[in-house]
Amino acid sequence: MRILALDLGTSLGYAYGDLPTGAVLRAGTVKLATAKEITEAHKTRMNRRLDPRLPALFNWLTSFNVLDGIDWVVFEDVEFSSFTQQTQLWSSFRAAVWVFAAQNRVDVECINVKALKKFGGGHGSSDKARMADRLCAQYKDFSRAVSGVMFQGKVLNDDAVDAVHLLKWAQTILKNTTK
Prior knowledge:
This protein is α/β, with parallel strands linked by helices. The protein has 7 helices and 8 strands; from the N terminus they run βββαααβαβααβββα.
């Protein structure tokens, strides 16, 4: 079973792995739009009609599925926002994942922010540094570097670290439910 875990946002954190081995095969970050593209979308009101990050997310998911195959998509279910546009963008990201999943017969699961922080960091208010430290302490494939967490010779940012915790959570949950 191939699982793709996503920390949804303009900087899309992802981790990809499988259930039988519990391995993390790949992890990283994809920029769904540049600051210039987002500013241009605002100027032309495309952010109100079709924010450029949404087709970018959908197309990335489709390409990833064609190349590697996805059985489950897991994402962090953010339950808060500071302003209306943030809420609308977050809802749109979720919708893009759900449409992709429906069209490709991929299962979807999500976990709320506090539960992920508790799983990955040990308590529901874990900060980014604690999440990174715990990842490195729990899994030998990850190590601390000055600029972040190292995995397979590259530095992972906070979004990718969250995605790895999402993947590990999904592997744990699915392993327990498929026995």
